[in-house]
Amino acid sequence: MFTKICVPVDGSEGAWKALAAAKTLGEKYGSELLVLTISGPYSSLIMMQVAVNEQTITRTKEELNKTRDTILGQAEERLAGYSGNVEYVETMGNPAQTIMKRAEEAGCDAIVMGSRGLSGVEEFLLGSVSEKVAQYAKVPVFIIK
């Protein structure tokens, strides 16, 4: 039924619950998993409020890369013993758009994600990533609370 499942993770508790649910679903259907972590582009709102120099941007990029590596490492640990294939991808972009684009490009036939992530202020101002994905994705979306 589900041959490939996209699971976006951001290190939040909701993301880890979604990963566990995707693992269970994937084991039941013999699915491949696409574990995706996304760094958003620098917010223009933040850039306008803070004087940023090139050193700060470079340091911030390095910190984002370390964070992404840590999140994917934790995901790999949590999927230890998973019987199917797992692909780990890190990328940058608008979270909702990137999740849907990557899922489509990879041929995923389901998306499993947490209902809340780490983007509290952005979520308050722009709406929930999970809401956007559920509304616009072309495949079934499972939102885990």
Placed side by side, the strands forming the largest sheet appear as 3-2-1-4-5
Total number of beta strands: 5
Low-confidence stretches: 42-50
State which percent range the strand residues make up: 15-25%
Mean pLDDT: 82
What sort of overall outline do the alpha carbons produce when their principal axes are compared? globular
- Give the N-terminus to C-terminus distance in angstroms: 23 Å
Listing every helix as H and every strand as E from the N terminus to the C terminus, the arrangement reads EHEHHEHEHHE
Biggest sheet features: 5 strands, parallel
State Rg: 16 Å
Helix count, DSSP H or I runs of 4 or more residues: 6
> Residue share in helices?
40-55%
Structural class: alpha/beta
SSE arrangement:
Layout lengths: L3 E5 L4 H17 L2 E8 L4 H6 L4 H25 L7 E7 L2 H11 L4 E5 L5 H7 L2 H8 L4 E4 L1
Helix pairs in contact: 4-6
